Amino acid sequence: MGAWEGDALLVGGCEEIEQVELAGAAATTIFLALDTMSALSRSIPGNWHDCDSTAAGGVVNAVRWKTATFAGHQLRYAVTGSGPAVVLPKKDRGSYVPFERLADQYTMVQIEPLGFGRSDRPDPYPPVGIHEQILAVCDQEDIPEFAVWGFSQGGAMACATAQATPRARLMVCGGFNVLRGLSDAWLARMNRERRIPVGSRTFWNLFHSYNWHAELRQMAIPKLMYWGTLDAQRVSLKDQYILRGVGIDVAEFAGLDHGRSGFGDPASPATDVVADWLQRHGW
C-alpha cells in the first residue's frame, strides 16, 4: 500500500477521482485506483470460502459455528482466529471474505442477528437493538471489547452498535450512506407493504429514529467509512466534507460498484485497507 502523508493515504494513480482539499478536516481521505486494487487482489488466497481459513505461515484456523440464546430465540454466529476481536454483523448465510482472511490477526466473529441468516425469525420481533444481540454473543465468547465492521445494511448495523455501546472501540461502515439513510417515504412504504422481513423492518425503523449527523459527532472512537465510485451509496463530496468534519476517515475505491466493494468479492481491496486502518489505530 502507499505511504501515509499528512491526512491522506494515496495509493497508485488517482486520476479517476476528483480530489479536493478539505482544509481543517481532521480525518483521513484514502484514494485507491484500479491498478492498485489489482495488486491487492493478487494477495487473496483462493480458499477464502472454505470451512477453514489458512493464516500466514500455513496455520489453519478452524471456523466454529455456534448458537447463543437471546430473548428466548437462537442466534447463529461463527468464530475463527485469535487476537483482538472484530465483529461482523451480517444479514445472509455463509462466510465473508474478511472473516477468514484476517483470522491470523484477529478473533473474527460473524453474527447473524434475529431475522437474518440461520438465526431464528421471531414475529413479533423482540423490542431490542442489534447491539444487544451482539453483546450477548460477545459475553458468551468472553470478548470485553471489539471493533465492529459492516457493509451495506450491515454497515448501518455497525453504526448502530457503535452508537449504543462503549464496548465497540472502533467502527467501520462500508457501502452505506449514513448521512442520507432512508427517506421517510421509503420507510412508510416499507411499513405499509410489509414485504421486507420483520428483522429488517424493525432495524430500519430504529435506525431511522436517530439524527446520525449528531450521533456520529458524539462517537469518540476511530471511525472509517468506504464505498466504490460506482456505488449508488457513494457519498457526495459535500457529505465527505461533513463526515471528515465529525472525525470520520473515508476511503473511496475507483471503478467499483456496490457488489465489487463488498464482503463477498475476494478481489475487493476493502479487507486490506480496513486491516491497515485497524492496525494504525492500535487494534
TrEMBL record:
Record-linked Gene3D superfamilies: alpha/beta hydrolase
InterPro entries assigned to the protein according to its UniProt record, in alphabetical order: AB_hydrolase_1, AB_hydrolase_fold
Residue intervals passing through the bilayer: none
Residue intervals of the AB hydrolase-1 domain: 102-175
Pfam families: Abhydrolase_1
Protein name per its UniProtKB record: AB hydrolase-1 domain-containing protein
UniProt lineage: Bacteria, Bacillati, Actinomycetota, Actinomycetes, Propionibacteriales
